[in-house]
Specification:
This protein is an all-alpha fold and about 210 residues long. The longest helix is centred in the middle third of the chain and has 15 residues. The chain is globular. The chain starts with 6 loop residues before the first helix and ends with a helix. The relative contact order is 0.16.
């Protein structure tokens, strides 16, 4: 039976995942050896295996090709959206409040996202954990586990190597309970809400703070 990862190992796994889920630029390719060495320190199991599989893919894929795949997958396919609140709230007004929960968690840990970036990107939440706020990051991931599972499934359906990274992140969480499984099934059947109002409420609430 695989043992649960300790906080230090979770930070390592999430640090690697946060880099791998970012746009594959020269920084990623230059850090391949460091990332691989970090992954080797993780205990045997799905997290290490999945991250290793993706790093092997990076090693055998030209940067331009991986970048093109990243854009085609995450930017052009709505079902592969890397923003966790999208799955539960779509583009409805309720999403603004959900985004603020992420923003407040980041601020409490002394972490600010760049202007124009949303705080619910999977890579950002993983970076929050890597910076030491493991409990807060895992709470956010668990609250939006249904969306995370849908993202993993969509990437697997697309045969994207990024499915390995999202699966690794999912594997750092406790096993899904009945309510989480039910939420994932409901989202898969119904999809995100479709009220097209953008994120204006989020911007208004942020401006008032």
């Amino acid at each position: 039976m695989m043992r649960a990862l300790g906080d230090g190992e979770l930070r390592t796994a999430h640090m690697v995942a946060s880099v791998l889920l970012g746009y594959p630029d020269e920084r990623l390719y230059g850090a391949r050896r460091v990332l691989a060495e970090a992954v080797i320190t993780l205990p045997a199991g799905e997290v290490r295996d999945r991250l290793t599989a993706f790093l092997d893919h990076v090693a055998s894929t030209a940067q331009a090709d991986l970048a093109a795949h990243y854009v085609a997958t995450f930017d052009l396919k709505r079902r592969c959206c890397p923003y966790l609140t999208y799955y539960a709230y779509g583009d409805t007004r309720k999403r603004g409040g959900a985004l603020l929960r992420f923003k407040h968690a980041l601020r409490a840990a002394g972490f600010e996202v760049a202007d124009g970036e949303l705080p619910d990107h999977v890579a950002v939440v993983c970076e929050l954990s890597a910076r030491g706020a493991v409990r807060e990051a895992r709470r956010l991931l668990r609250e939006h586990r249904a969306g995370l599972e849908l993202l993993r499934t969509a990437l697997e359906d697309e045969r994207s190597p990024y499915a390995d990274v999202v699966a690794a992140v999912t594997a750092t969480l406790p096993p899904a309970g009945p309510r989480e499984k039910e939420a994932a099934l409901r989202l898969a059947a119904e999809g995100p809400p479709a009220e097209e109002v953008g994120l204006e409420p989020y911007a208004v609430m942020e401006a008032s703070r």
